[in-house]
Amino acid sequence: MSIERPEVDDAMIRVAAIEIAAKLDGADVDNIVSEYSHSMDGFDLAKALDKHQGWDTTREDMEVLDDMEGIVRSLHKKAEIKWFAANDIQPPLPIGTPVKMVSLDGDTAGVITGICEYSVAHYEVKMSRQDDSQGVSRRLICFEDAVEA
Question: Torsion-angle region of residue 24: left (phi > 0), alpha (psi -120 to 50) or beta?
Fold first, then answer.
């Protein structure tokens, strides 16, 4: 694909930090932006703010900070939806195509079984060692990361 998928960027993080800071009395947006990293939960963000920015966060603050990641993910998904629509993104490989990838159990092969309806431009991949007798599970892989085996 010639047009790259949007990534979480500083603007998304700042928008989320503004929303979070509004819920915390006297919170500094720049502090939140400075300490946050994508996929950080509220506990880790509170610890970073305490350690590096001199905050004295409470449990209630931590719970508010826990919403930061959800807001960032929501903004990112909206950007992906816009990217998908604006660029007429199509799956480069058909369903049934064997693909190679790396999984935690060392399995390196799978088959595309469908297109995910919840994640933008992602295939559903059944890993080759997977047994569906105990329930169906699929790995999600971005269209652009799929490599034919």
Answer: beta
